[in-house]
Amino acid sequence: MVLLGRYLSPFVRRVATTMNLYGLAFEHRPLLAFGDDKDVIRQWNPVGRVPTLVLDDGEAVVDSAAILDYLDRLVGPERALTPAEEPDRHRMLSLLGIATGAVEKAVLTVYEVRHRPEEKRHAPWVELCARQARDGFHYLEARIRGPWMNGETLSQADVTAVCYWDFVKVANPELAAAMTCPGLDALSERANAMPAFADTRPDA
Ligand SMILES: N[C@@H](CCC(=O)N[C@@H](CS)C(=O)NCC(=O)O)C(=O)O
């Protein structure tokens, strides 16, 4: 399998980290979803976005949630980091949805600076995105129930929360500093001590 996209992308990183935790071998191609690389990604994904996972038969799986679901089915319910059974499953998927909403809003604050000239930025829109990101990460912060998000056992909630939180700290440090999430900081430190996370650091 070949994973397209840089680890600075929180969506790529959560896929790569999950593959590491599952012990699944893959080739990593750190393509940027902008510029010339986008045309390379378009060979497998018409919208040129990452992560895109190219399977051994050349078929591509697109969107990190779809890729995680594919990987979970590959390793089976006993090893999957997202529970297969209800009610745990919808609770986990809902938490992941909130986390993804929060980081998507943080990504927009970064795109605003990187891709829009200063005179064309709309401050109320940026502030709204920052607020949604803050509210989402504060929700995650309040949901930590032990050494890991769900208590004693590492789950997809930890992989996703850590990859997303680390992204904000690297890509928009001012936004991260304004949030104050000591629980997520501690979670990140614990997770990044593990090779599965350390090997995918966004700032590497
Ligand atoms: N919902 C998608 C989001 C993926 C995404 O936003 N990827 C960004 C990189 S962080 C991207 O490809 N941006 C380029 C673009 O949207 O054209 C997922 O979870 O995989």
Ligands, ions, cofactors: glutathione
Annotated CATH topology of the largest domain = Glutathione S-transferase Yfyf (Class Pi), Chain A, domain 2
Q: Unreliable runs, pLDDT <50, ≥5 residues?
A: none
Order of the strands making up the biggest sheet: 2-1-3-4
Instruction: Give the helix/strand class.
Output: mainly alpha
Please report the number of helical segments.
9
- The level 1 CATH classification of the largest domain is Mainly Alpha
Number of strands: 4
Summarize the main sheet: 4 strands, mixed
3D shape = globular
CATH architecture label name of the largest domain? Up-down Bundle
How much helical structure, as a percent, in the residues?
55-70%
Number of domains: 2
Give the DSSP E fraction (strand runs of 2 or more residues).
5-15%
SSE series: EHEHEEHHHHHHH
The residue-averaged pLDDT reads 97
What is the straight-line distance between the termini? Answer: 22 Å
Radius of gyration: 17 Å
Short description:
The protein is mostly helical and 204 residues long.
Descriptive key words:
single chain, 204 residues, Glutaredoxin, Glutathione S-transferase Yfyf (Class Pi), Chain A, domain 2, 2 domains, 9 helices, 58% helix, binds glutathione
Which secondary structure elements does this structure contain, and how are they paired or packed?
Layout: E1 2-4, H1 10-22, E2 27-29, H2 36-42, E3 52-54, E4 60-62, H3 64-75, H4 88-115, H5 123-142, H6 156-171, H7 173-179, H8 182-192, H9 195-198
Helix pairs in contact: 1-3, 1-6, 4-5, 4-6, 5-7, 6-7, 6-8
Account of the 3D structure:
The chain is mostly helical. It folds into 2 domains: 2-75, Glutaredoxin; 88-198, Glutathione S-transferase Yfyf (Class Pi), Chain A, domain 2 (Up-down Bundle), CATH 1.20.1050.10. Helix content is 58%, strand content 6%. It has 9 helices and 4 strands. It has a 4-stranded mixed beta sheet with strand order 2-1-3-4, covered by helices on one side. Helix 1 (10-22) links the parallel strand 1 and strand 2. Helix 1 (10-22) packs antiparallel against helix 6, helix 4 (88-115) runs antiparallel to helix 5 and helix 6 (156-171) crosses helix 8 (182-192). The longest helix has 28 residues, at 88-115. Glutathione binds at residues 9, 11, 33, 48-51, 63-65, 107.
